[in-house]
Design goal:
Structural class: mainly beta
Largest sheet: 5 strands, mixed
Radius of gyration: 17 Å
Order of helices and strands: HEEEEEEEEEEEHHEE
CATH superfamily: Aromatic compound dioxygenase
CATH architecture: Sandwich
Number of strands: 13
CATH topology: Protocatechuate 3,4-Dioxygenase, subunit A
Number of helices: 3
Shape: globular
Distance between the termini: 19 Å
CATH class: Mainly Beta
Number of domains: 1
Length: 287
């Protein structure tokens, strides 16, 4: 597939950041359907972005909304901070600039193992993440050829490249190009909960795979979360004991990111701890 190598307009980034405002002004509507919230994995100083689930249906649409081929009205998901552990070249770790985007092998679907010479493998309940990207500016058409950089914490609540003991690892980070349906798929593990945040997953959207090697080209930064029932079920298994106590001290109502609502940020999850989970979410962007 050919990739666009032109640079992303600074004006477009500013426009998108402004248009995103907050999640409460952005909604997916499905006539007669019920709203489905979205959720995420913990971090102490992060803000989260609302993504719109393909099955969600509450709230009102903003002026950036469009109508897709199935009649669904969609909106651009809100812009949120990438938090303190993005690993996209925008900040530093103990060794210098932390940039997973330039690592050999970072473009992959299975993100459980480290790449580029690091050998660690993250342990935990298998989780498949399926994000469907739609372009609100193109009548909610599938954003084929766009790319996603996704990252999250370990089952113990640490982040590769930053946390003690795993600064030399880069697992649970990866880049994927959207297929013809706008879908990116990641094979990973169910993230843990660390103190001060509800569990969540981070991601950045890029207009093309070629542009996903430089964080300045990102057009959206967001997070999503998991239903509480699923989270409790996962944390009842071996290896997630620390997450049980951390989760008991936090809630969506008190979380610094999700306290203003989760209706646009709750992934739809199927499966079980034995066979693994599948989390799906539809992400509206504009470019």
């Amino acid at each position: 597939m050919a990739h666009d190598h032109t640079t992303l307009s600074e004006d477009l980034e500013r426009m998108l950041a402004g248009a995103a405002s907050r999640r409460q002004s952005l909604r997916w509507l499905f006539a007669g359907a019920a709203a489905i919230p979205l959720a995420g994995c913990g971090g102490s100083s992060e803000d989260s972005s609302a993504t719109a689930s393909s099955t969600s249906s509450s709230g009102s649409t903003g002026s950036t909304g469009g109508t897709g081929s199935s009649g669904n009205v969609c909106s651009v998901i809100p812009e949120e901070t990438g938090g303190p552990y993005p690993g996209d070249g925008t900040n530093r770790n103990a060794s210098g600039v932390a940039n997973a985007l330039v690592l050999s092998g970072i473009v992959r679907s299975d993100i459980r193992a480290s790449v580029a010479g690091a050998t660690g493998v993250a342990q935990g309940i298998p989780l498949t993440i399926r994000l469907q990207l739609v372009n609100v500016a193109a009548n909610c058409a599938a954003a084929s050829g766009a790319a996603v950089y996704l990252w999250h914490c370990t089952r113990e609540g640490g982040y590769s490249m930053y946390s003690s003991g795993i600064t030399g690892e880069n697992f649970l980070r990866g880049v994927q190009e959207a297929d013809s349906q706008g879908v990116v798929t990641f094979q990973t593990i169910f993230p843990g909960c660390y103190d001060g945040r509800m569990p969540h997953v981070h991601f950045e959207v890029y207009p093309t795979l070629a542009k996903a090697s430089n964080a300045s080209n990102r057009i959206k930064t967001s997070q999503f979360a998991f239903p509480l029932a699923t989270t409790n079920e996962a944390y009842a298994t071996s290896g997630y004991s620390a997450s049980v106590s951390n989760l008991a001290r936090i809630s969506f109502a008190t979380d610094m990111v999700f306290s203003d609502g989760t209706a646009l940020q709750m992934a739809t999850v199927t499966g079980n701890p034995t066979q693994g989970y599948v989390a799906t979410l539809t992400v509206g962007v504009s470019f």
